[in-house]
Amino acid sequence: MTRVRIDLNISLDGYTSATDHSPENPMGEDWGALTAAYTGTRTFRSRVLGDTTGTGTTGVDDAHAAAYFDNIGAEILGAAMFGFHTFPDDPEWKGWWGDEPPFGVPVYVLTHRAPLPDLPMAGGTTFRFRSGSIEEVLAEAASSAESQDVRIGGGIGTAREFLCAGLVDDLHVAIAPVILGRGNRVWDDLRGLELSHKVDTEVAESGTLHVSFTR
Amino acid sequence: MTRVRIDLNISLDGYTSATDHSPENPMGEDWGALTAAYTGTRTFRSRVLGDTTGTGTTGVDDAHAAAYFDNIGAEILGAAMFGFHTFPDDPEWKGWWGDEPPFGVPVYVLTHRAPLPDLPMAGGTTFRFRSGSIEEVLAEAASSAESQDVRIGGGIGTAREFLCAGLVDDLHVAIAPVILGRGNRVWDDLRGLELSHKVDTEVAESGTLHVSFTR
Lengths: 215, 215
Prior knowledge:
Two copies of one chain form a homodimer.
Chain A: E1 4-11, E2 15-16, H1 31-39, H2 42-47, H3 60-69, E3 72-78, H4 79-82, E4 106-110, E5 119-120, E6 126-130, H5 134-144, E7 149-154, H6 156-164, E8 170-176, E9 184-185, H7 193-196, E10 198-203, E11 209-214
Parallel strand pairs in A: 1-7, 1-8, 3-4, 3-7, 4-6
Antiparallel strand pairs in A: 2-9, 5-6, 8-11, 10-11
GO biological process, one term (chains A, B): riboflavin biosynthetic process
Domain Bacterial bifunctional deaminase-reductase C-terminal (chains A, B): 4-190
InterPro entries (chains A, B): DHFR-like_dom_sf (IPR024072), RibDG_C (IPR002734), Riboflavin_Biosynth_HTPR (IPR050765)
């Protein structure tokens, strides 16, 4: 049975980064503090960085990192997560994920620029551009995922659209114990999420708090 | 060495309750969800309710509840926490803490109505009304606490004044895994608190997340 999943890295005060982007620091200067525990895991180092030496943390953070990559059959991204800034004017531009994006599955990109031709990439990723409602795109993504899950990959605006519409089965937040005081707010308009979902809480060796909402 | 301490019960989205007061529900309808784990502890039942039967939870929540009551030599409260609404017009009104308030120590009440005479109560509590700066009142409270600690007992506005002024040595937040979407915001203007304080995170059997900032 396909489940709809979201994973977020947030601060104790409920922010994701991304309002302090700059050319020098495209992810924003707060991104490192939010993701240090995750990017330090053995799974991240192996799966994303291609580090085959076995370095990186194991334990609770790594278990969540491994679960993140498990059983995803399709992904949905907001337009900014594809990186439309020169596409399709520059026919060579294929998003900012490089020649071999890390998805390996169909990736549905929500954009009013659709229809656009599919964009097959090396490694099994195919970008598919859609302008329908989130429910329509989710139905298509779920169908293409077959029995595997659909991840809403971001950004936070897209993730919150799916959350606020009640479309998410599994929300996992990794809370870094830092106070950012700025960024994109995650929790607005989600009062009572603990009533529709079961909540599990866990602390990692790094001090990161992992909270999982499951229905 | 006197330390300045604050304990808060907050939601995952960073709210304390208290914006939904009503005559029928003076603490607000969200208060129960925020404090259920705490009021269920054996320490709370014994210390606050006078339950001598030994019922209530033990474990992580109870350890924090016991620490809450330990080594406090003076307390500071905002005016609303004393309950000024009929004082001093009604000479019988002595705050809403009853004839024997649960403090048992000098309690400094921040109020522009001062000077007012001290109000000694049964059980060792004396209310002392002060209109000076928070630094001045803290200095006096610390002196009267001798080597014990001073608790900033609330409300959240008063707690945040001390936090934002950098006057707090120990902040313990018990985070109930619920999304309230309303209430008083705890974390505003506290960016970087993790840089001036060491942070410890812990999960209780109840699912409550305990985060302690210590310097």
